[in-house]
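Q: I'm writing up a methods section and want to include an example of the input and output format. Could you take the sequence below and give the corresponding predicted structure tokens, formatted cleanly so I can copy it straight into the document?
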Amino acid sequence: MDTIAQLLVSGVMLGGIYAIMSIGLTLIFGVLKIVNFAHGEFLMVAMYTAWAITSVVGGNAYTAAVIVVPVLLGFGAVAYLLIVKAAVDKPHLVVVFATMGLSILMQNLALVFMTADLRDVPPLFGGTSIRIGPVYFRAELLLGFLISVTVTVALMIFIKRSYIGKAIRATVQDRDAAMLMGINVPRIFLLTFAGGSALVGLAGCIMLPLYSAFPTVGLNFVLIAYVIVVLGGMGSMEGALLGGICIGLVQSLSGYYIAPAYGQMFYFLLFLLVMIFRPNGLLGQRGTAMVGINE
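A: Here is the clean output for your methods example:
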């Protein structure tokens, strides 16, 4: 029972961290109706930036978020203005190839300037674990989970109650009507893409103490992000949180009882089952572009 409790707790915390990585992607899709195929490379840039700050200035990856999040906010804004903006109203394949090209460019630039070496940061508290009853918590995992859940809840409240959040919801429901009501839809697109990139920046700071940074690190997590977004319901922030926790649990349990190498197979199997029996995702609703934002 202690082992099961440990696996469940670890899976939930890991899933919460996966969720914050995926919410930026689901936010962009829900508003702009596009998929950013360079999402993993944005995560890679965030991890490298956090590593550089901790190596030069000191501190840890969490304090580096004070700099990394604004950097990714600006990076996302520039990427949108230079690449994505011109492709938003074009056929879907234009956005796919544009963001895939950006992904390949970013990977190769990272390989040239950072080489293929792994970049790590020292563990918190010397790598010691926190014990609560029979369950052990890795400090980085617990702190990352708490940050992820707090930011997710704060973002949900912001979307539902703030003026910008209401403008985003109006844009999701009907772009033309939103423009007639005086909402600057192109600016909402810019803010959404930049904000989603900033969330990826925060995810990079949370994940750096748990994983090494290297040029193709984004490929290891972007597939998980896509599965979480579709599993929870395209455009649903609540669904992304639930989907992340489901994937974390599946990965934790299958890795212990079967083999870590089969973890990806099992969460893709879960993904297929959800698509068969609930095609709109766990919290998706038929005809709703962004669950939790439209409501």
